[in-house]
Amino acid sequence: MKKILYYTALMVLIVILLPAIIVRGCGPAPPQKPPAPEIPEKVYDITVYNKDTKLTEVMDLEEYIKGVVAAEMPADFDLEALKAQAVAARTFAYGRMSGAYRSKQGVHDGIDICTDSTHCQAWMSAESAKKRWGILFASRNWSKIERAVNETKGLIIVYQGDVINALFHASSAGRTENAEDVWEGKSVPYLRSVASSDESSKGYITTVTISEDELTEKLQEAYPEEELPESLADDIEVIDITEGGRVKTLRVGNIIMKGTEFRSLLGLRSACFSISSGDEGQISITTTGHGHGVGMSQWGANALAKTGGTFSEILRHYYTGVDIVSISDHEASAQRTDN
Ligand SMILES: [Zn+2]
User: Which domain holds residue 225?
Assistant: First the structure.
């Protein structure tokens, strides 16, 4: 019995204690490295004016971006397109939070952004989005949007170190627009006309009909000083077009106006249009694409994603010469430049 105990003790020594002694070595134990202190991730807040509730809410930027992606892009788009949308939307928002860009004044002064897509960018709550998608798709679609935002967390687009004005639109007309062809002002180096494949977008080519009387009425309201001919249908002429293929200027009777002005006067889907006279006193206007045409085309982004383009490639295609960086790196480098 004593022998058994002796051998058991010996085995314990050999099997357990000896390797521990060998591994530990004979010298003093090396000093333990203290764990690296955890740096809390910076959280960015944004103040959002909700055009429906007329309330202003402070939101976590990343949570806000989920609501923008849900409202701005169909959830069945490719994940890389949704990621590109998340980065563009975050950049657009950050541009306003940081004061680099200002939304049209007088609408929500002192508040970063609003939920009106025609003024800032659209937004909807997770509840509203899920209701819209219906019970079958609510959870799947929201998870996909969360993934697009989480996988691009904190990323924004910069041009030569400055945050860009990340404009986007629904669909282009084969090419996007140079910013200066749509709005007055100097050209923007990263908002240049580039090729875009948008043919699969809904209502890519749309024809609307308007009566001569209606057109005359709208023109008279906008140009009360101008005398208009009796029949307008045969007195409309496109004078020139932009690099992006949209109407730059046109003549309606004696009035010379910008294509963008004609678009907004009649609420057309795009300034890429052709006009023809239809049946008695009717004018037919056929538009291609949807939106102002500047920056990223959402349908074009989806087309690029479907052929294997990553979100970064999509953004670099639509915004010329840009880099994609994190907000914290951007702020650190801006601080270094200031010092
Ligand atoms: Zn706004």
Answer: 205-288
